[in-house]
UniProtKB/TrEMBL annotation:
<feature type="compositionally biased region" description="Polar residues">
    <location>
        <begin position="1069"/>
        <end position="1078"/>
    </location>
</feature>
<feature type="compositionally biased region" description="Basic and acidic residues">
    <location>
        <begin position="1147"/>
        <end position="1157"/>
    </location>
</feature>
<dbReference type="Pfam" id="PF25772">
    <property type="entry name" value="HEAT_RRP12_N"/>
</dbReference>
<comment type="similarity">
    <text>Belongs to the RRP12 family.</text>
</comment>
<dbReference type="InterPro" id="IPR012978">
    <property type="entry name" value="HEAT_RRP12"/>
</dbReference>
<feature type="domain" description="RRP12 HEAT">
    <location>
        <begin position="339"/>
        <end position="655"/>
    </location>
</feature>
<feature type="compositionally biased region" description="Acidic residues">
    <location>
        <begin position="1100"/>
        <end position="1112"/>
    </location>
</feature>
<feature type="compositionally biased region" description="Acidic residues">
    <location>
        <begin position="1052"/>
        <end position="1063"/>
    </location>
</feature>
<feature type="compositionally biased region" description="Basic residues">
    <location>
        <begin position="1086"/>
        <end position="1095"/>
    </location>
</feature>
<dbReference type="Pfam" id="PF08161">
    <property type="entry name" value="RRP12_HEAT"/>
</dbReference>
<feature type="compositionally biased region" description="Basic and acidic residues">
    <location>
        <begin position="1224"/>
        <end position="1234"/>
    </location>
</feature>
<protein>
    <recommendedName>
        <fullName>Ribosomal RNA-processing protein 12-like conserved domain-containing protein</fullName>
    </recommendedName>
</protein>
<feature type="domain" description="RRP12 N-terminal HEAT">
    <location>
        <begin position="6"/>
        <end position="270"/>
    </location>
</feature>
<feature type="compositionally biased region" description="Basic residues">
    <location>
        <begin position="1010"/>
        <end position="1021"/>
    </location>
</feature>
<dbReference type="InterPro" id="IPR016024">
    <property type="entry name" value="ARM-type_fold"/>
</dbReference>
<feature type="region of interest" description="Disordered">
    <location>
        <begin position="1007"/>
        <end position="1236"/>
    </location>
</feature>
<feature type="region of interest" description="Disordered">
    <location>
        <begin position="1253"/>
        <end position="1295"/>
    </location>
</feature>
Length: 1295
């Protein structure tokens, strides 16, 4: 027991506080002992420190021990030992070293005399352990008796005593690490272990049981002690453990394996390599022999021992490890044929870890050299290198005898590909061929095809596509493309990295050309299917280009070979233009990133998507490691050399392309311009500016009044459209322009800020924002001019351009905050109102830009590096508060929204402003303007969510009184919002606190909230039983799908359930979020468009066999299966025989057939009781089938056909109650059945939304009730038969 207290704290008070209220007798005795010790110290006028307690308690214990033959209370002795065990941990080291030898003798003698009392022994052993760790161990003779005492009790027959002794020995041996005493102590442990083994072998057959038990106890102790012994002792003990394991005794074997596992997994344990290698070899040979197979648990433990043991052996003796590890791979491969999944998984995991830990470059090069010297065709039996033997073992795991574990074997093969890298093309060529053969197996024999493609992808990434396709060629030049390996193309596209551009240009581009010629010839010969197949293969080959540009290894050497091809494709192949643009952007972005350039994807638009995964695979790491800044600079120099060729080509394509196809072209132009020479870019820029000015002049020139437009230009050919095109081109070149060119562009864009055309104005603001971001020094030199420009254009800004204008304000304000401008505060205050108003924009992007700008300004005001401080932040916050005095409700509402955003972001810094701000905000709740009310409610949400509950209690009354004003407003959806806010208050402050300030007339709202909460909790408890697995999966999905820290819609939404997610603190309750998602996906909140799209696009049908892979439309067999799928699936879903499952997911199979018999019995019973209903249903189904046939044969286009609606419903006529006598009238009662009854079905038109339809339905039902009196005395059958007859007579009379 350890107490959380210092050395000078009162031991008596600490122990009484912990055990004073306990009812256990030992705790009561301990408290009494502590009180006695406290009184002794008080009588002796000593301070109650651990040191003094130790002296007093040890003296009392010596008196008890020296009492001679007087009786001694075991409880008292135990309490003193327990108290001393607590005190010894608090004693200073020097005191313990001085008094430790004497105290050890006392406790050793106490253990010897009171060895039968388990509680006393356990407490005394704890004291002995602390004393041994504290005394001077250089004189082993003084420590040896106590150490032997501890070691002897490690074999005690009492489990608790034995466990306490083993724990104490572990602590003692840990304290001996690095000292000379460790060798002596380890020798003592080894002697005891050897003695226990000899006692078993020397004892007679009748008394061998006790010795065997001691051996088991010793093995249990070695599980903890062996990793702490000296290297010499470990080496002497391991052979004995190997011999014990070979006895194949279950209990002994398990103990030995546990000991070895603990030894191998102990990170700091030093093991003799020879002894370790010998025992690991024996374990591996035992697995490979196949004789006397052990249990599943033992085999899994052995695999873990081999895994961690060989890692230690590799660090200790690499040569020995290399010699032994191939045999272990062979043994582990044999385990893959086991039926138990635990064994297969353990073996595969061990092989993967051994591949990672026990294979180095020297082993790989040795194998490659040997193969190159002797050749692959020679069978060198017995002379294979270790790495070749490993490859052979791993490849053998793909044999058909391991088909049930191919999914795990493929993971091992993939790990070996990743480890070998390019050398895998030499060492694992036959494995690649085997993988290709597995692809040809039918789906029934190859259930893990997805893992197979992943493994092939690892091979492609490791050895490169050129070497991979040399081993497993595409074979697409054959007469029949269906017999080729076209299935490899998606794998190549997904997994390729670090490939060579030269191979693509020299091998795949000619192949695409040949396939294109084949497509044309097939189309000319009247073979459309073959032509489409060939054309799709061409598209797939060109789709590989972006993957080849993913960190290619020969950009500087081979880009010149492929540049002309790319230019030709851009010019001639419109469908492939996007692939080429994507490839160029990837090349530039990756090299710029490797060179260390600072890029912004918002302006340049050339950054590729960064990987979301925290760690990259081995191939990507290898490819990226080659991209040093020097290599990247050389690559960019080569690419920029072709900018004079690519830029004019891209300009022409950009101008000629429609607006929807210009995105990729613009990003590609920006990417190439960012790495091109400044003068080159400037020359192109001057030409573009001339055309821009010309288009501007044409757009501003009014048409002649009397001129007649014979051929009016199209909208995309108008001067305004061309003006926007050239502004986009100029925008693409911003990152490659110098200051002079930027000034020219600014002068050109400045007048366009006040243009009446929204598109021109938007382009101008985009250009201005890009200039500000590309060169911040440009902003510094034109602060006055830029500020004047933005202020004068404020009145004419269009809503579509406001977001880009805010970006301009962003850079301007950030520069102003850094200083250097005299009227900085005045300028910022001038722009504040515009930013605040932008938070109320309907456009989400504009609104988010305004929020980001507010937060950036706040952080800038607070940042000390830019001259900010807490006072500056408060000044900025005060500026926003001043906007509450706006003259319009829109401005007031925007100010409240901005304050809510700042309070959310800077809650800790602005917490003290809430008491002054909240009364003013709540006062706005008395306004009648809906916009203001909604914003204030959002602010209240922020205050409740972000501020501590203790501070909320102070304002609870004012919050509740303000919210209650709108608790009855249903017209503006405020009633539900107020309820949601009060629920949040209840969660934060408690039901009782809210009830105290809630007006009495509104207490029913709290009552309803409380009952709803209790009902939901009760429902949740009942649904959790039997659905633990499903709940766990839902919660895991919800916990990973977190919301952002700020969400405008959640705070200021008009929805009634906007508070469904709980507290807006960045993390939500998983169950609530999952429930909301389910409700939104299944309920009526889904829009009609979404429902139509779900019906129109059944994407689940395109999932082949639920594997999540896209459907190959070129595969005729799979396409037919999918086309047949919906019908068969519908039949399955329409079946009433749904499968039942247990709570753990197991399917329940009813072998007796009771359910089917019960179902048939119930159906027959129902048909007997309702013969007319059954006949009506049967007739209805037959009628439906006949109607469909007649409709198909007789339907005519353009002519509506009436349908018979009489079969849509049926009336229960009560025929079974009719009398069988011909003259009888009325119904007859029957035994075992209800009294005679009949009913008329309700007309569904009564629920129609049209008033005329509802009136007609009511009239029909009214006529039924009126005719009831006329049918008195008739049977139900006769009464129901009257109406059709009368209708026929009326119809004839009408005619």
């Amino acid at each position: 027991m350890d107490l959380a207290m210092g050395e000078d704290d009162d031991m008596c008070g600490a122990i009484m506080a912990r055990f004073g209220n306990s009812l256990a007798p030992e705790h009561k005795q301990l408290c009494a002992t502590v009180q006695i010790m406290a009184e002794v110290l008080q009588d002796q006028k000593l301070e109650p420190t651990p040191k003094h307690y130790f002296g007093a308690a040890l003296g009392c214990l010596m008196k008890l021990q020296g009492a001679g033959g007087a009786p001694r209370s075991e409880a008292v002795t135990t309490s003193f030992c327990t108290f001393l065990a607590m005190v010894l941990n608090k004693i200073p080291a020097n005191t313990l070293r001085a008094k430790g030898d004497e105290a050890l003798k006392i406790f050793v003698g106490l253990v010897a005399t009171d060895s039968e009392n388990a509680n006393t022994v356990k407490a005394a052993l704890s004291c002995v352990e602390i004393l041994i760790r504290g005394v001077d161990k250089s004189n082993w003779l003084t420590v040896a008796p106590a150490f032997n005492c501890l070691l002897r009790f490690c074999l005690d027959k009492r489990p608790k005593v034995r466990k306490r002794a083993q724990l104490c020995m572990t602590e003692v041996l840990s304290s001996l690490q690095g000292t000379h005493a460790l060798g002596t102590a380890s020798e003592v442990v080894f002697n005891l272990f050897e003695q226990s083994l000899n006692s078993v072998s020397n004892k007679s057959q009748g008394n061998s049981t006790t010795g065997a038990v001691e051996v088991l106890h010793m093995l249990g102790a070695l599980k903890q002690l062996l990793p702490l012994l000296s290297v010499k002792s470990i080496g002497r003990i391991l052979p004995y453990l190997a011999q014990l394991h070979e006895l194949q005794q279950p209990m002994v074997t398990r103990s030995v394996l546990d000991t070895l596992q603990a030894l191998c997994m102990y990170s700091s344990a030093e093991i003799p390599p020879v002894a370790l290698g010998d025992i690991l070899g024996r374990l591996g040979a035992l697995l490979a022999s196949g004789e006397k197979r052990s249990s599943v648990d033992e085999v899994t433990v052995v695999t873990r021992i081999l895994q961690h043991g060989f890692q230690k052996l590799w660090n200790a003796d690499r040569t020995l490890c290399v010699a032994k590890v191939p045999a272990v791979f062979h043994s582990l491969t044999g385990l893959l044929a086991w039926e138990q999944e635990e064994v297969v998984f353990a073996a595969a995991e061990s092989m993967r870890h051994l591949i990672e830990a026990c294979i180095d470059e020297a082993m790989i090069q040795q194998g490659v050299t040997q193969v190159r010297l002797h050749g692959e065709e020679q069978k060198r039996k017995g002379s294979l290198t270790p790495i070749e033997r490993i490859c052979v073992s791993v490849e053998s795991s793909l044999g058909y005898q391991y088909s049930t574990s191919w999914d795990m074997s493929l993971h091992v093969v993939a790990a070996l590909f990743d480890k070998l890298g390019e050398s895998s093309a030499i060492l694992m060529a036959s494995t690649v061929i085997t993988l290709g053969d597995l692809q040809n197996l039918p789906d029934d024999d190859m259930a893990c095809r997805k893992q197979l493609h992943t493994t092939l992808g690892s091979a492609v990434a490791a050895m490169g596509p050129d070497k991979f396709l040399a081993i497993l060629p595409l074979e697409m030049d054959g007469a029949n493309l269906t017999e080729s390996r076209v299935w490899l193309l998606p794998t190549l596209k997904q997994h390729m990295v670090g490939a060579r551009l030269q191979f693509y240009q020299e091998s795949l581009v000619p192949l695409a050309t040949r396939l294109r010629e084949r497509a044309r010839s097939c189309a000319a010969a009247g073979k459309p299917v073959a032509a489409k197949n060939a054309e799709s293969c061409v598209q797939s080959i060109w789709a590989l280009l972006p993957s080849f540009c993913n960190y290619p290894s020969d950009t500087a050497q081979s880009f010149s070979l492929i540049a002309k091809t790319l230019g030709d494709v851009l010019t001639k192949e419109q469908d492939l233009r996007g692939l080429v643009c994507s490839s160029l952007k990837t090349l530039v972005a990756q090299n710029r990133k490797a060179r260390g350039d600072k890029m912004d994807d918002k302006v340049a638009g050339i950054l590729i998507e960064e990987e979301n995964s925290e760690e990259l695979n081995v191939a990507e790491q290898r490819a990226r490691s080659l991209y040093t800044p020097e290599v990247a600079a050389a690559n960019l120099k080569t690419i920029s050399g072709y900018s004079r060729n690519f830029l004019p080509l891209l300009f022409n394509l950009f101008v000629a392309s429609p607006a929807e196809r210009r995105g990729d072209l613009q990003l590609t132009i920006a990417a190439i311009a960012s790495i091109s020479d400044k003068q080159t870019v400037k020359s192109f820029f001057v030409a573009i500016m001339k055309k821009l000015l010309q288009a501007t002049v044409e757009a501003s020139t009014p048409a002649e009044p009397g001129a007649m437009q014979v051929d009016a230009p199209k909208p995309e050919e108008s001067p305004t459209a061309r003006r926007c095109v050239f502004m986009d081109l100029a925008l693409s070149l911003v990152n490659g322009l110098d200051d002079e060119a930027l000034g020219m562009l600014f002068s050109t864009a400045r007048p366009a800020l006040q243009d009446n055309d929204a598109a021109v104005q938007k382009k101008a603001y985009k250009v201005l924002a890009s200039i500000c971001q590309a060169n911040i020094n440009f902003v510094a030199g034109k602060v006055e001019e830029l500020l004047e420009t933005l202020l004068t254009s404020l009145s004419s800004v269009h809503s579509s351009a406001r977001r880009h204008r805010l970006r301009c304000l962003h850079f301007l304000i950030l520069h102003l905050m850094k200083g250097g401008y005299e009227r900085k505060d005045e300028a910022i205050a001038t722009l504040i109102s515009e930013i605040v108003l932008a938070t109320k924009e309907s456009n989400k992007k504009t609104r988010n830009e305004a929020y980001d700008l507010l937060i950036e300004i706040g952080h800038g005001m607070q940042d000390e590096d830019t001259g900010g401080s807490q006072e500056r932040l408060m000044q900025f916050f005060t500026m926003i508060v001043g906007c509450l005095a706006g003259s319009t409700p829109h401005m007031v509402s925007a100010a409240v929204v901005a304050l809510a955003r700042l309070l959310y972001e800077f809650s800790s810094e602005l917490c003290h402003t809430v008491p002054d701000l909240l009364p003013s905000a709540l006062l706005l709740l008395k306004s009648k303007n809906r916009e203001i009310i909604k914003s204030v409610l959002g602010l209240v949400k922020v205050v409740i969510a972000r501020f501590p509950a203790a501070e909320l209690d102070q304002h609870l009354r004012s919050l509740v009184e303000g919210l209650i004003l709108w608790s009855d407003d249903s017209k503006n959806h405020f009633k539900a919002k107020v309820r949601a806010i009060i629920e949040r208050l209840v969660r934060r402050c408690g039901m009782d606190s809210v009830a105290k300030v809630m007006p009495q007339e509104h207490m029913k709202l709290l009552t309803n909230i409380r009952k709803t909460k209790e009902h939901n909790e009760k429902k949740k408890k009942t649904t959790e039983e039997g659905e633990e697995a499903e709940t766990k999966s839902v919660q895991s999905r919800a916990s990973t799908a977190r919301k952002s820290k700020w969400n405008h819609t959640d705070m200021f939404s008009d929805d009634d359930d906007d508070d469904e997610y709980g507290d807006m603190d960045g993390s939500m309750k998983a169950s609530t979020m999952a429930k909301t998602r389910t409700n939104k996906s299944d309920g009526t909140t889904k829009s009609r468009k979404l429902r139509k799209s779900n019906k129109r696009l059944p994407e689940d049908l395109m999932d082949v066999e639920g594997e999540g892979e896209p459907l190959d439309l070129l595969d005729t067999r799979k396409t037919r299966e999918v086309l047949r799928g919906p019908k068969s699936q519908k039949k399955k879903n329409d079946s009433d025989d749904e499968l039942e499952y247990t709570a753990d997911g197991k399917m329940i199979v009813d072998e007796s057939g009771d359910k089917i018999r019960d179902k048939i019995k119930r159906k027959r019973q129902w048909e007997e009781d309702h013969p007319h209903a059954a006949a009506s249903q049967a007739g209805r189904s037959t009628k439906r089938g006949d109607d469909e046939v007649s409709r198909k044969s007789q339907s005519r286009p353009g002519k509506a056909r009436k349908t018979n609606n009489e079969s849509k419903s049926w009336a229960y006529t009560g025929d079974e109650y009719a009398s069988k006598k011909s003259k009888a009238v009325g119904d007859v009662k029957k035994d075992g059945k209800l009294d005679p009854y009949a009913y008329w079905p309700l007309d569904p038109k009564i629920l129609n939304r049209r008033e005329a339809k509802r009136n007609a339905a009511r009239k029909g039902m009214g006529s039924v009730m009126k005719s009831a009196k006329k049918m008195q005395g008739m049977s139900s059958k006769e009464a129901l038969a009257q109406k059709p007859a009368r209708a026929k007579k009326q119809q004839k009379a009408h005619k």
